[in-house]
Amino acid sequence: MQIESKLPNVGITIFTKMSKMAQEYGAINLSQGFPDFDVAPELIEKVCHYMKQGQNQYPPMAGVLNLREAIAEKIERSHDWLPQVENVLVTCGAIEAIFNTISAFVHSGDEVIIMNPAYDAYEAIIDLQGAKAVGVNLQPKDYSIDWPAVEQAITDKTRMIIINSPHNPSGATISKDDLKELERLTKDTEILVLSDEVYEHIVFDGKEHNSILASEELRKRAVATFSFGKTFHATGWRMGYLVGPDFLMKEILKIHQYNTFTIHAPSQYAIADYLKTPENYESIAAMYQEKRDFFLKAMEGSRFKPVKSSGTYFQLMDYSAISDKPDIEMAEWLTKEIGVAAIPTSVFYQDGQDNKVLRFCFAKNEETLKAAADKLKEL
Taking Cα atoms as reference points, which of 190, 201, 172 lies closest to residue 345? Predict the structure, then answer.
């Protein structure tokens, strides 16, 4: 039997590949973005509590009401806008939220603008719709959005623009001026906006997260996606959510009900309780900034040049002073020979742009970061 692949150019993700190599060679894994420290004991206890209380059957399709109310209150606290509960949908991680949104509105022949370097799932999901991902490269030095290039990329086929802040892989963040530009380009058009904000609470150096939800104009045409896995360093729980206006939610729910239908019930009740204490999510920026600063300090004296992260738990490092190897080859060599796994950033570009930059995850214990830095400084 011969099968015609719907994703002929897609293999295993670079994250899976590098984590597998790290395991095979006994390397320190700073590649895939997952913490090596525990979830808060209080949150784990709450999940167990609700399991014992019998909350183990199907919860409501859109999410437990307590959790959706808690999410709405958190958004009001963070962005001075209170969404209706009906505008909140709990999903299986942010990736389901992104998949549902693109699948609901992007049709064969449409175009979707993405910002390169871009999280690799965007293009694959767009391809599955028979649509085209139109890449606009971010500015090379600070990874800011090149708005004139975005405007030039818009055609009568443009159905959606995807933005991501704090940005994976660069750690860059968007400004209020960026949101104004996005408002200008999309106002009075049929263009929808998908805003990937999974690292919303991980911003550094006194900066604020500028959510699309803070813009009254953009809220009319936008869906924002979020991740409890990133916020509460529980990536294996696969818990996320999205927020959007009524006319978009109606279509997204159609996809959700035939995709995952609903999400792990006891975790929803537990997170609803946990959100009642804002410090549980507002304190994580300081925690991750300490880790970023520790890693940067530990790397002082190395030949790597950091592109300082403003958010996320990723740090880019320019290795051009060390080697002229292509970044994929360099990442593999580091894993095998030096014992530290990282992610090459060329895989985030549609054109494979290679800037001799690697992405390191610093969501690790200090012992892990120091051991990795010691190895890297040998180069």
Answer: 172
- pTM here? 0.96
Amino acid (one-letter) located at 366? E
d(CA 329, CA 103): 34
- Taken as a whole, the chain contains a residue count of 379
Cα(227)–Cα(32) distance, integer angstroms: 16
pLDDT digits (tens, 9 = 90+) for 28-37: 999 988 899 9
Q: Which tokens hold the place of 342? A: 């990282």
Nearest by Cα to 343 from 31, 133, 66: 31
Which of 240, 164, 156 is CA-nearest to residue 209?
164
* pLDDT tens digits, 341-376: 999 999 999 999 999 999 999 999 999 999 999 999
Distant-in-sequence, close-in-space partners of 206: CB < 8 Å, separation ≥ 6: none
The two structure tokens encoding residue 377: 């400084």
Domains of the chain: 14-32+283-376 (3.90.1150.10), 41-280 (3.40.640.10)
Cβ pair 113, 161 in contact under 8 A: yes
Question: What is the dihedral sign for C-alpha 114, 120, 126, 130?
Answer: positive
- Name the residue among 289, 150, 146, 132 with its Cα closest to residue 206: 289
User: Tokens 């993700």 correspond to what residue?
Assistant: 13
Structure tokens at 248: 């978009």
pLDDT in tens, 226-263: 999 999 999 999 999 999 999 999 999 999 999 999 99
Instruction: Give the separation between CA 151 and CA 138, rounded to whole angstroms.
Output: 13
Contact 25, 339 (CB under 8 A): yes
- 99-124 as b/e: b if 16+ CB within 10 A: bbbbbbbbeeebbbbbbbbbbbebbb
**Cα gap 62→265, rounded to integer Å:** 11
Task: Tell me the β-bridge partners of 29.
Answer: 341
Yes or no: say if 46 and 269 are a contact pair by the CB < 8 Å rule: yes
- 326, with CB counted inside 10 A (0-12, 13-18, 19+), is middle
